[in-house]
Amino acid sequence: MLQNVIGGLQGMIDHAMVGHFVGYTANAGIGVSWQIFLVVMVFISSLFTGMAVLVARFVGAGDRASANRVVYQAFLTSSVLSIGVLAPLGYFLAPTLLRFVHAAPAVQAEALPFLRIMFVFSFGMMTFFMLGGALRAAGDARTPLRYGVALTVMNIVFNVILIRGLGPIPAYGTKGAAMGTTLAGGLLALLAFHRLVTHKWVVGFPRDGTWGPDWAIIRSLFRFGLPTGLQGVAMNVGGVLLLRFIGSLEPSAAAQAAYAIGYTELFSLITWTSVGLMGATSAVAGQNLGAKRPDRVSEGVHAAAKIGLSAAAVVAVLFLTIPGALLAAFGMKDPEVVQIATLLLRYLSVSAFFITVALTYTGGLQGTGDTRSPFYITLISQIVIPLGLCTLLQSIRPLTPGDIWLSILLGHMTRCTLSLIRFRQGKWRSISVGIEPA
Exposed, middle or buried by CB within 10 Å (0-12, 13-18, 19+), for 301? Predict the structure, then answer.
């Protein structure tokens, strides 16, 4: 949770700086870019979900050698995908993707260089996600926290220099935010690679020098990770399509800026803590199922949900009592943007309770190997419900920002309900995992 909160501060600082030095069109540009980038990045990083399922189960069973083999194959596969596929396709398709979400011309001008830099130099960020997932699945949550702090500090330093300029270094504005993020991730990836090769952590690369692809493990990574990848793609495609509805509003640029700050950044105070709980729950669930203790799986999920609800209560109070101060921290002073964003925060203060419970139970399902159910739940809650409601209302009358914010809330409520029902069915108890011997 702490790592994800600290990591979330990077995006907040990016938005705060460009909001003050460039304007709210830069906020909208970064928000739109991240929504597009996450569609692809989440798919590739889904391999790390498959990796975490296998690593946690093998560690729980006392098989460290198999856990190390899984970590290396996840690193190898994600490297090929991020460098060989994501970088070239993302660079050339970026303008088309921005037009698809109806980004205003001023927003596109800010978003295009940011998005291209993120696509081309995403390898460092992928390595960081892999590192965190592998170590947490093996029971070490402190090392990812320390590296997360280091990544955030480097990102802040680079962004302060590159966004506003310093001495002979010019001010790069929105583009500087992407440069700082990728530069920090790249430096951390080099350090992580050294530590994995030299076996300084609880997991590392295989000691037997087997560096080629192991197709049995890669198939297992996709078996458990692909549904999560499709889930992430569906969720973020839903977000991109939601941006099309936001782009169709009369105050489109103002609404996109409100969405970028209110949902992408401020709501991350609850989503990132909940994602942290989801990762912890997944590790606890996988290790205990590997150790033949399914009763502790249920106990872990219930405990995580209680923690998440406590955090959601704090965030909800902030959204309801000091929305103006929260928005002002990002340089949001335009009356129209503030009005739309304040309304969004009211809806999100309720969503916070539902999304934190949904994510903790998702962690329990994924950690035990049930990665398909969350995918189907996501299709219903993140696409069918919100987009269906927006489509229906738009066919009756012009959409308002409040219509879109309501659709987000109803989607979160649906996701929570379905995740809870699926976990309590208990079918995860009989899921088995395994790979061929080395």
Answer: buried
Q: How far apart are the first and last CA of the chain?
A: 35
CA 366 to chain centre: 15
Ranges of H-type helices in 322-398: 323-328, 335-367, 372-378, 385-396
b/e map 29-60, b = 16+ CB within 10 Å: bbbbbbbbbbbbbbbbbbbbbbbbbbbbbbbb
DSSP state, 23? -
Report the distance separating Cα 381 and Cα 47, nearest Å: 23
Contact present, 56 and 283 (Cβ < 8 Å): yes
The structure tokens listed for 168 are: 């002979």
Encoding tokens for residue 410?
A: 């109803």
**61 in Cβ contact with 291 (< 8 Å):** yes
- CA-CA distance, 177 to 13, in Å (whole number)? 9
169 DSSP assignment:
B
Query: For the segment 250-303, what is each residue's pLDDT rounded down to a tens digit?
Result: 888 888 888 888 887 788 888 888 988 998 898 889 888 888 888 999 999 999
Neighbours of 436 (CB within 10 A): 11
Half-sphere exposure of 382 (CA within 13 A, CB side): 21
pTM score: 0.72
pLDDT in tens, 83-124: 888 889 889 999 998 888 777 788 888 889 989 999 999 888
**CB–CB of 257/337 below 8 Å?**
yes
CA distances from 14 to 11, 124, 131, 163, 256 (A): 5, 18, 24, 8, 16
Contact 420, 361 (CB under 8 A): yes
CB contact set of 209 (below 8 Å; sequence gap of 6+): none
Alpha carbon distance 347, 344 (integer Å) = 5
β-pair partners for 166: 169
225-262 confidence digits (pLDDT tens): 888 777 777 777 787 788 888 888 888 888 888 888 88
Please give the Cα distance from 305 to 300 (Å, whole number): 9
Considering only CA atoms, give the Rg of the chain.
Answer: 21
Residues 404-432: what's their mean pLDDT? 92
- Altogether, the residues listed in the chain come to a count of 438
